[in-house]
Design brief:
8 strands, about 50% helix, about 400 residues, alpha/beta, two-stranded antiparallel ribbon
Length: about 400
């Protein structure tokens, strides 16, 4: 019997090397006045950007730069949304990493609204967004978040009373996800590693989620095969375009999976830690992934009704480990060992360098969610996970 399900809508997806050359014509389907949301400087100074701007001029497309140097804050979104309305922007084009894509979503949704974005954020706001937005094109330049395929925009306010929460609506899925695998070539090694581990975590958590579907399981396994084959190659040789394309596919797939199956405790930590400290999202995910899965497996093994989750862990082990004809427990432990070895090989840092210490653990655990995790963890288990990376 087929299990009942629903599946989130997707953007139109164009996936190919050189796809950005078609961006001007895609823009013209929506208008000629463009808000170009980018990172601090990397894309704007690239040869691809210069060629793109020449095409804009030929086609009478007018553009304004909206720079997002890090994870978007409520103040940045409010400021740029007001600017987009005043400039009569017709289409938002976000070209960058996950933070830039999230900012593009939020700007497109908040332009013309007369209230601050914080009032519409889940958990911290008091209003529901009506779902109206400007046309939106998402062009990722990293392989991590899969934000080009999701309906949420993560907004951060860092500090003692900080938060990292989503502006979310079904209508916020971009109209077009234009994935030009060549745009990831210049991504630095550390960002490639951290964003790749974020992608790995998303695929794994979606596969293990208590909301997983047959569809998301199938997609997640395809994405995980790409991670297995290409993540380390990407980090070791950023000019390996086959590996870059593989990780672009994995990231897109991770976004589709998380949109339908949800995520687990590692992303719960990414939200709580990211709201309190200035630390890259991918570093949190990559740093905690091995220990979080080790603790989850240990707790699952204590339970009677654990067959589904542990069977999935064994399937992950079979995917990542070449040894054959071993019992399930061997593959479960081998998968966790693989993650730990990969975390070390990619030089994912611990937390001490970001100002996080033992004194912060109770508050982080208190506010960390672990919904959709294959096993519910208490604050004691979560503290164990955090403590393992305080170096």
């Amino acid at each position: 019997m087929v299990k009942q399900f629903q599946f989130a809508k997707l953007p139109k997806i164009i996936f190919r090397d050189g796809a950005i050359t078609g961006l001007p014509d895609q823009i013209l389907a929506f208008g000629k006045q463009v808000a170009l949301v980018t990172g601090k400087k990397s894309f704007a100074n690239s040869p691809e950007a210069l060629r793109l701007f020449n095409e804009f001029e030929k086609k009478a497309i007018r553009w304004s730069f909206y720079s997002i140097p890090g994870e978007p804050s409520p103040d940045e979104i409010d400021r740029y949304a007001a600017r987009a309305a005043s400039e009569n922007i017709e289409v938002v084009v976000a070209i960058g990493g996950g933070s830039v894509l999230d900012a593009g979503k939020a700007i497109s949704a908040m332009a013309g609204m007369d209230k601050p974005v914080q009032r519409f954020l889940e958990s911290v706001g008091d209003l529901e967004h009506p779902g109206t937005r400007m046309p939106l094109i998402a062009v990722p330049t990293t392989s991590g978040t899969g934000s080009e395929a999701t309906k949420n925009a993560v907004i951060s306010k860092t500090g003692k009373d900080g938060f990292k929460k989503s502006l979310r609506h079904d209508n916020f899925v971009p109209d077009l996800a234009l994935i030009d695998t060549g745009l990831t070539k210049g991504c630095p090694r550390d960002i490639t590693a951290a964003s790749g581990m974020d992608c790995f975590t998303q695929l794994t958590e979606a596969y293990l989620s208590d909301k997983a579907l047959n569809y998301t399981d199938a997609l997640a396994m395809e994405g995980l095969r790409a991670v297995r084959d290409y993540l380390e190659k990407c980090v070791c040789d950023g000019s390996d375009m086959e590996a870059r394309a593989g990780m672009s596919f994995a990231a897109l797939t991770s976004g589709i999976c998380l949109a339908n199956a949800g995520l687990g405790v590692v992303h719960g930590f990414a939200s709580s830690v990211g709201g309190l400290f200035e630390i890259p999202h991918g570093v949190v995910c990559g740093s905690l992934m091995a220990k979080a899965n080790e603790v989850a497996v240990r707790e699952l093994r204590k339970m009677k009704d654990n067959n589904t989750a542990l069977k999935k862990y064994s399937q992950l082990g079979r995917l990542f480990v070449s040894t054959e004809n071993k019992p399930d427990d061997y593959y479960i432990d081998a998968f966790i060992g693989y993650i730990a070895e990969l975390t070390s090989a990619l030089e994912i840092p611990g937390f001490a360098g970001y100002g996080i210490g033992e004194i912060d653990i109770p508050e982080i655990c208190r506010i960390t969610e672990n919904k959709n995790n294959p096993v519910k963890l208490g604050e004691t288990e979560m503290a164990e996970i955090l403590s393992s990376r305080l170096f």
